[in-house]
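Morning run. Coffee first, then this:
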Amino acid sequence: MSAERVKNMKEFVCLLKNTQLFSGVAEEEIESMLSCLGARVKSFCKGEYVLRQGEYLGDIIVLVEGKAHIQKDDYWGNRSILGQITVGEMFGEAYVAPESGAVLNDVVAIENSTFMFFDVKRIITTCSSACRFHSMVVQNMFFAISEKNRKLVQKLGHMSKRSTREKLISYLSEEAKKQNSSSFTIPFNRQQLADFLSVDRSAMSNELSKMRDEGLLEFNKNKFKLI
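And here it is:
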């Protein structure tokens, strides 16, 4: 591992301290754990694939700069956005089991992004140096998996609605509650929102316009206000 690469990783220690994976771990402990956990830094340009469906993954990954989407394209090129990854978020934990199989979805950088990769075997196995906070990282990973499952249940709740309007109401209501305001910003543009809810973009745009005309909401790009 080059000195430059180590230096680059150390620049992200402060950020890692505020991630769910390293919650409660002191900065100096995180810095000493980087080698223990087999940490590597990789950067991707906008539009590049971080992971592709069918690949095998042996790492837990944390986004430290930029933004990415978890998405899936069918045979005809129709895209579904399954989720968005923002700075500090972890992914790849669904494949930590030995028999979990290949990656089921693509992960794409939607802006220039940097990721830190941690060897999953080193995370779940106590290291020879017995890092004091290693067990805390394992516990944090368990909690993060639980949180991801909760978000998946929320998304399934949106997807279970029959009509485009019902899906929009379900999603926008959830965002308003999450941000504790009737005025809020969503993390998607129109096409991304349509892909996330698995609806036709034109039909969704028409439905949003109808809801605005009926006085249910106001919107400008990705900013919404529920009335």
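Residues 43 and 114 are 4 Å apart (CA to CA). Good start to the day.
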